[in-house]
User: Fold this.
Amino acid sequence: MKMNRNHERVHIDEGNMCRLCAAEIKEIYSDLSLSEEELDILAMPRRAFIVRFPVKTGTGKTRMFVGYRVQYNDARGPAKGGIRFHPDLTLEHMSDLAFLMCLKCAVVNIPFGGAKGGVLVNPKELDRNELELVTRGYIRAIADFIGAFRDIPAPDVYTDEQIMAWILDEYERIKREHCPAIVTGKPVALGGLKARKYSTALGGIYILEEALKERGMDKTGTRIAIQGFGHVGKNAARLLHEKGYKVIAVSDSGGGILDREGLDIPSVISHKKTSRGVTGFSGAQGISNEQLLTCDCDVLVPSALSSQLHSGNADDVKAKIILELANAPTTAEADEILFKKNVLVIPDVLANSGGVVVSYFEWSQNLNNDYWDEEKVLEKLRQTMISAYRDVHAICLQEQCRMRKSAYKIGVKRILHAERLRGNL
Ligand code: NAD
Assistant:
């Protein structure tokens, strides 16, 4: 534990800073020779709070719910980050994810800070009416602290565009005026963008295509394996298939499937709709999730959970490129092993930032009342992602370091630059 200039206890060593990337961040802070003041500014969120609010459930009984919101840093613009409904949330984990959101927005150079929040609830145990009441109750509890120029929520785990629509409506009822820019990921009819649904996957694919060019790998010979077949993984598989890549393996929580000749992804999507999983797809070989991660492929796309690539399996990975569409799918130990094996790991803060980039377009269109067609949205997304890739890649070449390290360095430097311009440093 360290003491700052005001002799407050600052847990820089034990991790008020992001626990999900502590090892990497410590190394970066030391490489950048950050001063005590700079470390202090980044060490903790600016605002982190817990709310409790009552909801009358279907049985007529009142139940108190707990919600969190963390606004880690807003030097570069309003705080921005998802709202998740999950039974295992902690304020610390929200804080870690809010920190990563700050880095992500800074790496792709959009004018947002980072936030994260949620409600401690298993949404599967609520009926639709209760889900709406919980959403509205949470927004009433945090309404004074969010806003289109303060903190802008978005969907995250177990929250969707319907929940964003309730958030919008509740906030506007409180403020007694229209304010579409208060939340992103809304339905199109309420000012959302169609591309938001697949923008995380597409943003990642734009980056992947740059990396493939860089490595001299061509489209026809590139075999891709994707872990996770939800919102992100399914869209990644669909878009890659449409672009002519060979997706040879996919998986979900029930297991995986492999076809070395390439899976017919539209048929896999139909199969999953009817049988609720990808396994059992006709003509494909059944594999486990562990086998998917180490299968013979050129590109591996983790799109499910955190810490899937670890010291126990990283050595067996055969892919030449890993595109992290999931958040934190690679542990620090695995990252080191993969770097030594010359596997290019395109880190989450860059690879999966397409969603927040399109959220930024949604927010700015809401503010300007100026709606672009989908083609323009996608072109702007492509330009933003490629420009971020080039910034990160340039540092990798200069310093011969991992992409994660160069992305984090860019993010930290941009946040501190904004703090300096504001006179906070
Ligand atoms: P989702 O809930 O829609 O899908 C998750 C998928 O992972 C499901 O297909 C599920 O079956 C599968 N899965 C669960 N456990 C698994 C296991 N053990 N092995 C293999 N697959 C498993 O979630 P999502 O929105 O697609 O998010 C996936 C990841 O991408 C998460 O890490 C999320 O934080 C990250 N992410 C999502 C977005 C976004 O726009 N949705 C943006 C940035 C990052």
In short: Residues 199-346 form a domain with the Rossmann fold fold (CATH 3.40.50.720). The first helix runs from residue 22 to 31. Residues 3 and 9 are 5 Å apart (CA to CA).
